[in-house]
Amino acid sequence: MLYLQSYVSLVKNNHDFRHLWFSQIISQLGDWFNLIASASLVAGLSGSGLAIGGLFIARLLPPFVLGPVVGVVADRFDRRKILIASDLLRAVVVLGFLLVRTESDIWLLYVLTVVQLSISAFFEPTRAAILPGIVKYEELVTANALASVTWSSMLALGAALGGLATAALGITSAFIIDAATFLLSAWFITRLSVGVSALPAAKHTAATGWQTFVDGLRYLWHRPATLMVALLKAASALAFGGVEIVQVNLAENIFRLGDDASATLGLIYLAVGLGTGLGPVAARRITGDTPRAMYWAILAGFLAMVAGYALLGWAPTLTVVLVATIIRTVGTGINWVFASALLQMTVPSNYLGRVFAFDFAMMTLASSASTLWAGWAADTLGWSPYQISLALAGVSMVTAAAWASHMLLYSRQKAVIAP
Predict the structure, then answer these.
(1) CB-based contacts of 172, cutoff 8 Å, min separation 6
(2) What is the DSSP letter of 356?
(3) What pLDDT does 416 receive?
C-alpha cells in the first residue's frame, strides 16, 4: 500500500510530472496502434521475414545514427521545446502512412518510418533527461517505475485496441488515431513549467557541438561502472530485437486468429505490456530504491529473459506463447526501469542528455542487429521461430553472465556506480 501511495502522491502533487505523464499516456497509446498497423500492413503486402525485419530496423536505426546530435541538442537547448516540436512533426509524418496502399508502396512506409523515428530519437532521450529536473532524487525510481507501467499499460491497451481496430476498421484508422495523439501529447507538454537546457547558452557551432559530444563519451569512458549501466538496454536488445520477427511469424503463420495477423499480434503485445508493467513494480517492492539491490534485480531480469525465450522456443499453443512472453518481458521491464533510474540518480544533469542518447543509440543498434539476424535466419537459413527463440535464449544467457561478472568486479566498492 505504501508503494501505491508513492505513485499516487507523485502524480497528484507534482504538476510538471503529471502533465509529462499524461503526454506519455496519450502518445504511446497511438504508437502501438501505429506499430500493429504497420506490421500487419507489411506482413499482408509482402509476407517476407526480411521485409518485416526491415520495418523494425527502420524503427530502430535512426536513434543510433542520430545519437551524437541528439545528446548535444538535449543538453544545449530547451528540453520542453524539443519535446513539443518532436510531437508536432511526428503528427504530420504519420499521416503520410495513409499513402501506402500496395506492395510497391512499401518503400514509402520504410521512408516515413525512418523520418518518424528520427524525430522520435530526439524525444525519448530528452524526456528521460528532463525527468530529474521535475521530480525529487528520492522519487526517481518511483517516476521511472510509473513510466514503465504506463508504457506497458498503453502497450497492452494500445496493442489490443490497435489489433481490434485494424481488423474491424482497417489500417487507415490506426494511422489517423496516432497522428491525433501526437497533437494532444504536445498540448500536455506545453503545460510544463521547466525544460531549459542543462548547458550554458554559448556559441552553438559545429565545433563546440562536436566537442560537447566527445566530452560526453569521455565522461562515460572514465566511469566504467556507469558505462556498463548505460549498455544494459543494449544487452537486453540483443535478444528482444530478434523476437519481433518471431512474434510476427507466429502470428502470421502458426497462431493466426481471423483473416490476418492483427488480432494475434494484439494479444502478444498485450502480454508484453503485462510483463513489462508487472516486472519493475514487483521488483521495486523487493529491492526498494537502493542501487545495490537494483543490481541484483537486473541479474534476475536477465535470468527471466533466458527462461522466457527458452519457453517460447517450445511453445505448442498460443497460451504458452503468451505465458513465455510475459516471463521474458518481466525481465526486460526490470532492466529498462532500473537502468534508467540508476543513470538519473548518478549522472549530473549537464551530461544526462548525452548519456541517455548513448544509452538509446546502443539499444537501437543492438536491437537492429538482432532483428536483421532473425530475419536473415528465417529467410536464408530456413529457421523456424522456435529455433530463433532458442538462439535468443542463449544470447540472454551470455548477457546474464556478463552482468554477473560485472557485479563481482564492483562488489567491494562502497558506491555501486561512480558519480
Answers:
(1) 98
(2) H
(3) 43
3 state DSSP class of 68: helix
Residue type, 197: S
Assigned C-alpha cell, 157 = 491497451
Residues of the chain predicted below pLDDT 70:
1-5, 32, 47-50, 53, 56, 60, 152, 155-156, 158-160, 162-163, 165-170, 194-210, 258-262, 410-419
Q: Where are the domains of the chain?
A: 12-188+220-410
Any idea what the Cα angle at residue 326 is, between residues 396 and 390, rounded to 5°? 35
Residues listed for the chain: 419
What are the phi and psi torsion angles at 194 (to 5°)?
-125, 175
Q: What CATH number has the domain spanning 12-188+220-410?
A: 1.20.1250.20
pLDDT at site 284: 79
Query: How far, in Å, CA of 17 to CA of 159, rounded?
Result: 25
* 330 contacts 301 by C-beta, under 8 angstroms: yes
Question: What is the DSSP code (8-state) at residue 190?
Answer: T
Contacts by 408-411, CB closer than 8 A, 24 or more apart? 410/225
What does the alpha-carbon distance between residue 228 and residue 47 come to, in Å, rounded to a whole number? 38
Grid coordinates of 311: 519457453
Distance CA 9, CA 3 (A): 10
Residue with cell 503529471: 18
| Cα distances (angstroms) measured from residue 115 to each of 14, 60, 66, 96, 416 | 33, 11, 12, 11, 39
CA pair distance 283, 273, nearest whole angstrom: 16
* Residue 288 burial (10 A CB sphere; 0-12, 13-18, 19+): exposed
